[in-house]
Amino acid sequence: MLKLMYITNQPEVALIAEASGVDRIFVDMEYIGKSDRQGGMDTVQSHHTPKDVKKMKEILSKAKVVARCNPIHEETDKYCSSKQEIDEIIEAGADIIMLPYFKTVEEVKEFIRLVDGRAKTLPLVETPEAVDCINDILELDGIDEIFIGLNDLSLGYGMKFMFQLLADGTVEKLCNKFRARGVPYGFGGIAALGKGLLPAERVIAEHHRLGSTSAILSRSFCNTLVITDLNEIKKIFDSGMKEIIAFQKDCENGKIDFKENLTELKIAVKKVLEKIG
Question: Using CA atoms, how far apart are residues 1 and 18, in angstroms rounded to an integer?
């Protein structure tokens, strides 16, 4: 079963997600440079804080707390240094820290040094430069998990649709490298079954074919910026998670033809690109 993550800093929503079977609550503190590279796109830019990490850690009983910090940076008059930020995240109780948008081995090495074994490390591969040096990155000691960020990585390659990276084999090549090094890995986001530009079923089956262990529930799974009634949110999580878990069991029990799914996935991606133009 995939470890599923959901991005929120709302305690009531986090408790609903946890009760439905979500494994990780994702506190997203990344903002430095994000609006510049994703300007005009329909993406989530949460700008959560270490206080949100602490709040989640205090209320959750089963789900782990993942905190995405900012890319490695020095202190400026606008924000603190990476060292201070990571120290504050750890002090707040994060179980796992995700490093976004790195381009060099040295950045990952510095991230591991700053975390210093006080939390699990989760580098987020989302730049072409990171892909280019991934073999050297995987030689580093101290990487607990790794994740592929499809949105920014596809932007980096000048693609129009993030799931092109599944269709063209990029994700598979990376997953093969991660697996060979014995590092758990995941990628991208999934919507509720039957939803999404690329149906969630196609993406989930591909996770299982590639040996992925984690994914993020996309905003479209339950957009709490639009849906604010907690009873409605609970219904969405309960039914949506039940369907995802059942489909994953089908994947594990050999009821899904992965080869056929990959063929259909490529066809679906091609259709989306034709529609985008």
Answer: 15
Question: Which pLDDT belongs to residue 135?
Answer: 98
Q: Which residues contact 132 (CB under 8 A, 6 or more apart)?
A: none
CATH numbers and ranges of domains, the chain: 3-276 (3.20.20.60)
Say if residues 221 and 5 touch (Cβ distance below 8 Å). no
Q: What is the mean pLDDT of the chain?
A: 95
Residue 258, pLDDT above cutoff 90: yes
The pLDDT of residue 37 = 54
Provide the pLDDT for residue 35. 65
